[in-house]
Amino acid sequence: MLMFSIAVLRGGPVQGAYRLRQLHFHWGSSDDHGSEHIIDGVKHAAELHMVHWNPKHGNFAGALKQRDGVAVVGIFLQIGNTPKPEMKRILEEIDKIKTKGKEAPFHHFDPSILFPKSRDYWTYEGSFTTPPCEECITWILLREPVVVSPDQMAKLRSLSMNAENEPFCPLVDNWRPPQPLKGRVVRASFK
Ligand SMILES: [Zn+2]
């Protein structure tokens, strides 16, 4: 069973306790695409990634070079009219980081509040989806999506790639298409 306490991931396919390093989203320009993983042909509007690293490798850079270095929990976001209330906290911060280079610190934030009810997941060994795509990741994809409202999704799409004083250039479609499976085995925690 997968367990989450404040910023620590343990159980499921990983050995020991992995620490949360950062979380980020991938999303599309419209509701019918945006997730990086496609399950039985279904694309979701967005996908949340929580990046954890294995402290036995000393630091994050060191963990990137190890096969058991990093575990990423992926959560699908689905558009609906009864959004998960806990998502509000994150999406409210978006107004503060509208343009390139801005940061929003999160103090005493417990990311496990963003998790869906079900802890069913798929898992496989793989790489980062951004270059240099190190092969160091245990992917853990939660089966149950969480619901965000159309307004919240619009907020994500209102982010821009430009700096504050530059012309607006929307940040959308920051997802990478799925890669060939190349003999990788995907396991499910459920039947
Ligand atoms: Zn990602």
Structural class: mainly beta
Calculate the mean pLDDT score and round it.
85
Which geometry do the CA atoms define? Answer: globular
CATH architecture: Roll
What distance separates the N and C termini? 14 Å
Strand content: 25-35%
| Radius of gyration, taken over Cα atoms and rounded to an integer in Å | 16 Å
> Which class in CATH terms?
Alpha Beta
Subcellular location: Cytoplasm
Protein name: Carbonic anhydrase
Main location: cytoplasm
Family: Belongs to the alpha-carbonic anhydrase family.
Brief descriptors of the model:
30% strand; 3 helices; nine-stranded mixed β-sheet; Carbonic anhydrase; single chain; 191 residues; mainly beta; Carbonic Anhydrase II; binds zinc ion
SSE diagram, text form:
Blueprint: E1 2-5, E2 8-11, E3 14-27, E4 46-53, H1 60-63, E5 70-79, H2 87-93, E6 121-126, E7 137-142, E8 146-148, H3 150-157, E9 187-188
Parallel strand pairs: 5-7, 5-8
Antiparallel strand pairs: 1-2, 2-3, 3-4, 4-5, 6-7, 6-9
The chain binds zinc ion.
Would you kindly provide a written description of the structure presented here, covering whatever features stand out?
- This is Carbonic anhydrase.
- It is built from three helices and nine strands, in the order E-E-E-E-H-E-H-E-E-E-H-E.
- The protein is mainly beta.
- It has a single domain (2-165), classed as Alpha carbonic anhydrase (Carbonic Anhydrase II, Roll), CATH 3.10.200.10.
- The protein is globular.
- The two termini are 14 Å apart.
- Bound molecules: zinc ion (ZN).
- Zinc ion is lined by residues 24, 26, 49, 129.
- The site of zinc ion has 4 residues, from strand 3.
